[in-house]
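The data are passed on as follows:
___
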Amino acid sequence: MKKQSIFFILTILILGCRKEEVGTFEGPSIDELNSPFSVLTGLASSRDSVNFATGETVYFTAELSKTVAWQLRIIGEESGAEKIVTGLNKVIDAEVYTWDGSTTNLPLFRNENCQVQLTFEGETDTLTTVVKVLTPKTNNGFLIADFDGGFNPGWSFFFQSGLDMNFSIVNDGTAPEGEKHYNMEGTVDWDYLIGLINFKASAYGESSFPLNSNSDNVYFNTMIYGDPIFLNSIILFQFEEDENGDGTFDGATEDMYSLEIPVNWTGWKLVSIKYSDLPSLASGVPVAANGNAVHNSDRISTINMLHLANPATGHARSKLDYLIFTENGPLIP
C-alpha cells in the first residue's frame, strides 16, 4: 500500500510539471522552426503616399509561414536617406512597426519616392514596394540655422586670411536636411581659429533665445560632416548667457558654457547634448563658471560657432547643418 501511494504522488508531480511547461512555453515550436520558409502574403503598404508634416504615418504588412528574423529598409531614391527596422515575427503589421518619417542614417528624407525592402535572415527572398513621401516630417523646436535661406543679416562671421579658405553656403545635393549646408575649410598655420559665426538671439527678434528655463529639458542638436581626407577639424560652440538681462554678455561676471567636438568621423553625424550637461571651458579644459554657475538656458543671448584645427595639421575641412534646440529629449531625425 505504501509503495502504491508513493507511485501515485510521483505520477501527479510528473504530470503537473509537464502541464506547467506547456502552459509557459514561449516562441515558435520546434516543428515551426524546422519547417520550410515561405511568404504567404507579400509586402504591402497601408498607403501609396504619405504627408508626414500633417501627422500621417504609414505601416507595412506581410505574412510568413513561420517566425523569422527580418529587416525592413526604407531608402529615399533622391536623398539616399535610410530607415532600418528589425524584428522577429510571423506577421508584420501596424502593431509591429509604423513609420513616422524618421531616419536611421542621415540625410533626412525629402519629398521623394522611397524603395521599401523586406529581407529575412538566412533566406534569399526580398520583398519590395514603393512609398512616396509628399512632405517629410517636421521637427518641433527652435531652429537656429539650416542655411536654406542664406545668411541671416543678424549673424556675424569671421574667417582668417589663410590658404584655400572657403566658408560658404553650398547647394550641391549633399545636405543632410533641406537643400543647403555650410562648408568650412582652410589652412591656417599660425592659429587654431580658422573661422566663426556668431548666432545672436537678436537676429531672431529676441533678447535671448526663447527656450525653457529648465536646462534639463533643453537639448542642443546639430549635424556635422567629417571629411574623409581631413579629419583634423574641431568645432567649438560657446553659449553666452546674459544673466542680468542688460543686453550684453560680460565674460568676467556671467556664464559661458561650451561644447567642443573633435570631428573624428567620416560623413554626416547628428550631435545632441542636454544643455545642463555643458561644461564651462578655458582652452578646452573644464573650469569654474564666472557667473552664477547655473545653466540658465532661457538667458542665452549668443551662440558662437568656431571652426578650429591644430595649425600643425594643415588643411582642415568640415561641414555644418541644421542647428536646432529641442525640448524633453534630443532630436529624433
Notes: Residues 2-23 form the longest helix (22 residues). The chain is about 10% helix and 45% strand. The radius of gyration is 28 Å.
